[in-house]
Amino acid sequence: MIPAERLDRLWASLIDRAILLPLVFGAAIFIPAMKDSPGMAFGLIAVSVLVVLAYAGYQIYLLSTQGQTIGKRIMGVRIILVKDETNGGFVVNVLLRGVLTAAISVIPFVGVLYALTDICFIFREDRRCIHDHIAGTWAVRTRR
Predict the structure, then answer these.
(1) What pTM, to 2 d.p., does this model score?
(2) DSSP string of 28-82?
(3) What pLDDT was estimated at residue 33?
(4) Backbone angles phi, psi at 44, to 5 degrees
């Protein structure tokens, strides 16, 4: 397998985040009936939260079943296990790569250092970040 290009991984991450922004802010456009009602703020927040949860659920489903998010699919990147080049599933792709990394990143002082170091690891020859090493994964190209 060929490691995913660094810029492809970056673009995949940016695409995933770019999709999320209009989903959150779009709630205000699609619920004009709430505009002048007293519960407008609560309604918009509730709808935004539901939309974000639905998007997150879909991304988790894709990561668990295919090793890709929408951005990774667009950029031709897939997450596989180093040991046998298969999909890691929910525990590896979501919990170890995502949730554990996020949990470490919010620890005061240590989290910032971890987040910066994690990103810098992509510049090593194998292009694996710390979260890839923790989970035993590798981001590879799916197209040439």
Answers:
(1) 0.82
(2) HHH-GGGTTSTTHHHHHHHHHHHHHHHHHHHHHHHHHHHS--HHHHHHTEEEEET
(3) 56
(4) -65, -40
